[in-house]
Amino acid sequence: MNRFGRAGALLAGSLCLLAANAPASADALADHARRLHFSSIVLDTHDDTTQRFGRKDYDFGRRNTDGSQVDLPRMREGGFNAIFFSIFIDSKITGAPAVAMALDQIDEVRELVRAHPADLELATTAADVRRAHAHGRIAVLMGVEGGHMIGNDLRMVRVFGDLGVRYMTLSHFRNNEWADSSTDKPAHNGLTDFGKDVVREMNRQGILVDVSHVADKTFYDALEVSRAPLIASHSSVRALSAHPRNMSDDMIRALAAKGGVIQINYELNFLSDEFRRAYEQQFGDLPSKFAALSKQCNDDDVCMSAALHHEIEEAQAAGRLPRVSWERIIDHIDHVVKLVGADHVGLGSDFDGADMPDGMEDCSKLPKITEALVRRGYSDADIRKILGGNLLRVMEAAQRVSRELGGPAN
């Protein structure tokens, strides 16, 4: 044997061993990610599935093929076990009609839970969510998406709280009478005095103050007034996509400094600046597009989502809009973690209310997020925080503030 013979043989043997072990190592990582995902509380703070409740062509208890993204079989398949159903009424509807329609949707969510007692459990506290998870049930929570639904009546904050609502978004695409929106012309320079009273009453009721959709000045006003941490229930990172619905790095730092959390939105315009710019060239800004679709669909949100999805698919097939990978979700999470740490980011998909990136077509695909975080070197503890633990911590903080203020928290 020449002088390279033994070393060459050892090197060849080592390479063969590495090749043999590489697939097993990859499989082990995937198995670990799957076990981690399905043993964790996977909580999403914004799903517009509520708009489908009561429709003849939709049954939450079966796998649907109507373009919807959330139902009970796919939630089980995706390990999705804690959901905030959005209570949403278009912000052009105000006053008593908006209040009545919001109450109708709250009732539909509560009736859904009553109809599926083996699978669903209404939750209003972090302890409720953990108990539902321990019993193998999906925790159902509610968030009101737009302060216009209180009808300028502070008492409605208390009514919503009594009915189980656990966050309220201060505004939607349009300004309301007391809060400026990120996608409307400023009318109040942030929050009015009444708007600040709304935030204080939300604190007293243990209702999370949600700053998705709000103007930057509204965000800073709410941050100053609120004694509890804030959430952005479905917003992404402005540094990666410069949409006004997303949060700037300075806003994220301020949110985190007060203990809050940004829940990443999977909507294409909010994930990819390349897509956002191409989309606005094709269709104009998102609020204007929604306004046109609202007229076309006679205010039917399911019709609007389907029409928008069809237009985007056609434009992507023709090469007028770029494709966007689901891995952009992970890029937004990474950005927040590098900026303020793993304690201040979570998941706020906008399922059933937005167009999803390739590979995240519905909630059954959620295990991909956990595996991607494992592959990027996140610890199990940090992944559990991102999947749901961070939001539960903020809920607990809001409950403590409610008790301190003499509110109904128990």
What fold name goes in the CATH topology slot?
TIM Barrel
Name of the top-level CATH class: Alpha Beta
- SSE order in H/E notation? HEHEHEHEHEHEHEHEHHHHHEHH
Query: Largest sheet at a glance?
Result: 6 strands, parallel
Q: What sort of overall outline do the alpha carbons produce when their principal axes are compared?
A: globular
Count of alpha and pi helical runs: 15
CA-CA gap between termini: 80 Å
**What is the residue-averaged pLDDT?**
93
Overall domain count: 1
Describe what this molecule looks like in 3D.
- The chain is α/β, with parallel strands linked by helices and 410 residues long.
- The protein has a single domain, classed as Alpha-Beta Barrel (TIM Barrel).
- It is built from 15 helices and nine strands.
- The strands form two sheets. Strands 1, 2, 3, 4, 5 and 6 form a six-stranded parallel β-sheet that branches. Strands 7-8-9 form a three-stranded parallel β-sheet.
Which structural traits does this protein have?
TIM Barrel, 15 helices, single chain, six-stranded parallel sheet, globular, disordered N terminus, 49% helix
List the SSEs and their pairings:
Elements: H1 5-39, E1 43-47, H2 72-77, E2 82-87, H3 95-115, E3 120-122, H4 126-134, E4 138-145, H5 155-162, E5 165-169, H6 193-205, E6 208-210, H7 216-225, E7 231-232, H8 249-257, E8 261-264, H9 268-271, H10 273-283, H11 286-296, H12 301-317, H13 327-340, E9 345-347, H14 367-375, H15 380-404
